[in-house]
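To assess whether the prediction recovers the assembly geometry, we first specified each molecular entity separately, as shown.
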Amino acid sequence: MDFTPTEDRRLLAETLDRFLADRYPFQHRLAVAYREPWHDPAAWGALCGLGILSALVPEARGGFGGQGFDIATVFESLGRALCPEPVLPALMALRALMPTGRALDDVLDGSRQVALALFEGDGGIGFGQIATRAERRGGGWVLSGRKAVIYGGHVAAELLVAARHDDTLGLFSVSAGDARRLAYGMIDGGGAAEILLEATPAELMIADAEAVLGDALEAGALALCAEAVGAMDRAIEMTTEYLRTRRQFGRPIGSFQALQHRLVDLAIEREQARSITIAAAAALGTEGQSRAVSMAKALVGGAARRIAEEAIQMHGGIGMTWEAAIGHYAKRLVMLDHQLGDADAHLDRLAAAYCGG
Amino acid sequence: MDFTPTEDRRLLAETLDRFLADRYPFQHRLAVAYREPWHDPAAWGALCGLGILSALVPEARGGFGGQGFDIATVFESLGRALCPEPVLPALMALRALMPTGRALDDVLDGSRQVALALFEGDGGIGFGQIATRAERRGGGWVLSGRKAVIYGGHVAAELLVAARHDDTLGLFSVSAGDARRLAYGMIDGGGAAEILLEATPAELMIADAEAVLGDALEAGALALCAEAVGAMDRAIEMTTEYLRTRRQFGRPIGSFQALQHRLVDLAIEREQARSITIAAAAALGTEGQSRAVSMAKALVGGAARRIAEEAIQMHGGIGMTWEAAIGHYAKRLVMLDHQLGDADAHLDRLAAAYCGG
Amino acid sequence: MDLRLTAQEEAFRAEVRAFLRDHLPDRLARKVRAGESLSKAEMEEWHAILNARGWLAAGWPREWGGPGWSAVERYIFEEECARAHAPRVVPFGVSMLGPVLIAFGTEAQKRHWLPRILNGQDWWCQGYSEPGAGSDLASLRTRAVREDGHYLVNGQKTWTTLAQHANMMFALVRTRFEGKPQEGISFLLIDMTSPGVERRPIRTIDGGQEINEVFLTDVRVPVENRVGEENQGWTIAKYLLGHERTNIAGMGFVIAAFEELRALMGRMRRDGRPLIAHPRFAARLAAIECELEALKITNLRMLSGHGGQSLAVPAMLKIRATVLRQQIDSLARQALGPAAAPFPGEGPRDNLALVPPEAARAAAIYFNNRKLSIFGGSNEIQRNIVAQDMLGRL
Amino acid sequence: MDLRLTAQEEAFRAEVRAFLRDHLPDRLARKVRAGESLSKAEMEEWHAILNARGWLAAGWPREWGGPGWSAVERYIFEEECARAHAPRVVPFGVSMLGPVLIAFGTEAQKRHWLPRILNGQDWWCQGYSEPGAGSDLASLRTRAVREDGHYLVNGQKTWTTLAQHANMMFALVRTRFEGKPQEGISFLLIDMTSPGVERRPIRTIDGGQEINEVFLTDVRVPVENRVGEENQGWTIAKYLLGHERTNIAGMGFVIAAFEELRALMGRMRRDGRPLIAHPRFAARLAAIECELEALKITNLRMLSGHGGQSLAVPAMLKIRATVLRQQIDSLARQALGPAAAPFPGEGPRDNLALVPPEAARAAAIYFNNRKLSIFGGSNEIQRNIVAQDMLGRL
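The predicted structure of the complete assembly is given in tokenized form:
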């Protein structure tokens, strides 16, 4: 057992942290995260140049990482900086493309953005509610249906779409230009899109994609957990600093025991979130992946919300203002739970296993 | 709208409080509640002499009360004194007997104790799990089955047993001497029993008793809520007093803000518990009875447990000792939730109504 | 003990309901229901409708143009308005300054200012908080120095809700600089159009712009615009804290939010079934409903004077009501699942997923309402008040 | 980063498991599983079994008879023991006094006392708390006045766990009465058979009798029974607080309790189905399991030194582990429904309802384990420690 990060990952984290501190200070983040295209294309190119995507892919597929701890390292850095670049959609697309023969160079270098179009408005994470249909037409396929909340869909050139053909869930590639796309910004920064497919031409990538889609979902959920841990670290740091310096009634508010004890509870929640994320990272690629990721996403969802709410509360009015960073960290921490299955959805999955398995 | 208690009920509460303060000080309660017969037969007689049971029954049936607020008044007093006398079983039996022709005098004067034998080990409050069967034999009936956790069953001369005949749930009377009875004391004081029926002779009281049993259950649940409110009042009083007087680190521990804020949260929970109990008392006998009682029992169950746990915690080591009253109040507050449907059971009933009704 | 409304109260409820049916514009109700901000004109429109009926200043005595309602009638009115999605009456003039003037104002002040509140001539905002004095009002630093017939006011106020619309501000200012800090505060009425008044909007995390900073530089305020005696401002502030009990819990709005949540949970789907058909979600809703039902009674008990007159009573109500509202908002946000993400106003809302339009702002409302436990005396301050009431000075 | 056990560690786990299978008497395991109290003889029996294998003092170095295990090996040992329902090693001699003697004792003290801990000649109890000094050890009042070659000790200790079995007590006593209160405390080894020692059992709310008051009246303690320098007792107490990290969370016992709970929820029925088949209950169990899984890692991270060496680390672990254990106990109690009521030991247990015998004490265990967040430094004290670490002196 060893909790020391490898030298490579330590360097990766350092590089990313330094780059983001330099290129993505909070004011910059504020300027780009809430305005179309809801990220900074130049920074995106630079991040890909640093190899942020290659770290998410194994050597055999042209990267230099791809393990759970690589994903965790990258996303913890992104979380600390509250970075809205569409790395999550790239990760999920890469996980889906990895088992195919498709060359990944243009994805890894950032020049071709790909997003995964999975769910359709039902809040659950089961694939049973996916109704988009694929039909053969001519020598190829056409897709019809509506995909909701596609992360990164606002900038993707290519969409990987889950659709049913006969009784099987397949994965298809659609050129973004061929679909009707409704792009929008998100309340916690960054962009997404919804797409409408009406006999839209598509290329079949994976005929039976259920397992691959499950893996992409779980890798994404792990990434969100790591991002949350990074954001929690900063939120607790900022709150601690605020309690140390803000004075009311003639003393620092951090000297009030009621706030002290609540701060401690947040720190404990954060340590638990970090631990369960480590467990999920370690389990990625093993038979325990699904269970470990659901455990992590379930625990992190609740912890992130409690930390967010308390961080705002302890900042008082300041925490409600757009200008202060803490409110934006809080929003991200709350809204993370809405992505790729909330705590309830993952608890349900774990609960079902008690009886099923 | 009027929140003033009637003069009659104010007097009843005063009388009971005075009697219990006199006859049931904490040391006496400690001496009788945990030793067979797990109550004080002399005090029982005196309480009945004061009309404690008559207050639970309307004039038409020989009492002088019987409304929700009468039940609440009586049980709030009992809760304040942490009194283990078997008033709850008497209430439930009386509610079940009220629609029958049976004279109630011997029950009301305390000379004949009657208990209701309802559930059989399943933790739910639905009657669907009741499996005890009634069969005709000769001119009468015999019952076979096993009844679990009969409150007051340890001292009852007569048991009112819910049993199925054909497809109907009926109510039967069994002489306690005819059944095999396993009496025991409870962890929070007071007694109960389990009974085994093996072709035990019985008299049919009500052929279709489903509605009557539901009413008895709900009247009992309301009584428990009121008892909880009384016990909460005392637990919070004792805790407040302890915080005011106990010194650590050179000052009263009540001056520590973390404890102050937690105490306030308990006071708020107590007010909420009192309010929902008032709502349930007001609804007794109306079409809103089931819903209001389930709301009360659900809210009170959680509030009582949190108050109990925090009261012990804030008392520190003292709260763990048998000699201090607070631990016994805490036990009663926690174990109340185990009686007549816990918070989960009642929430489930409310939740089912969202879809069903 | 009798929880039923009297026949008279039931008739009153019917009268309010009929009035709302006939006079509340749909246009406004739709916006309120969806949690959208109203324009100044829309708020003024609703005030004028209520004033025409004599119902604007629910808490004022008849003498000054109020309806002379009992506490229960006021509660019924508030609940019906919220259920009908009527706009909230802007409280600063009607619910805050009005009662203060009635209790502490001179005859001339009452005659001048009270009618102007009713007929909408003045739009008031509240100048209490300062950057260095959020919860700790005693430490406020805005100074008013008396010169001839006026005060010269310098300082900064913040968290000033709707100050962008206001032409008048009532403010706590420091008029004495020695002695106990609470004893050197006065209550002034400041003309926002005076030279030296500058306001700057504060954007909130949900993207809204309802609060402001107000900078006061050598602002001249006539001495006759002081309410009460000089240095009596703390007494007035405390009076106000204890006075406005009917509405402290905002029960009507909590009830309306709950009803919206219940409808939303019947509509949003998870794993192919409405959320309300999932036992876990339904039980969560039921637990909230239990607290809500209890809080209604707690509120009415307090209104009826059962609960004592200490400041602990409104403090407890405020804590529980704000937390409950926040729990409801949080469940509504959760109910939307991934569809909660879009930033309201960005992108083509009407084309987005399966979200009922009245719920599209659920996440924004959740974030905005984190303020409920912070502003107007944070819940920490409220807990301090209750604790002192329970424990006494230790 | 690698969470897998090494091959060596896996082999060690197998060895421990085999040992437990072969040497842990069923009789003891059954009592432990049901949460029943063990007799003195039973605890001594288990100590002797462990000592015969050289595994009794898991944290001691080889030199003094310990097995010389790594932190991970100690964790594995503890977890396996708990899963097998082995009795808990009585910590006072082995885990508390032993390390103190090894760090602060004279050569003679070590040679005399350490072997007696291992072979069971001495049964130790801990004399820290006093009626007026529960969480606030600095204010303790038991006084030891030096006379010739001994201290004369007067005072009262309380919450002394298992003192009824003990022949020896290590205690903090006041040896200086001026200056900072922390700087006047010494660490003494007191012979419980001395004249002037009197113990009185304290019954706990669950009916158990494991804790005691100990009265000390003119008790003579030889000066050579002082560990460390005079007035150095506070340093020793703090050392001990930071030292015993492996077991602070009692992870093995939490894991074992969780496994019992899961089994119980598969067995207890509600509305005709096992509790675990109800989505709400199953999700509650799952949420606990997530916290437990996280806490395992948190514990191991701390053991591996990732988390710093401050006292905040064991304090956070203690808070989370005790609360988690209490949540598990509470769910087990709830799972029993009405069947949780019987007072253990009263009435014919084997005839009572459908409760598996190993769960019959669930309510009593729940009540007894409320102590976990109180004794050994209450969770409030632990939060103070962490807060000071995070915020510094303010």
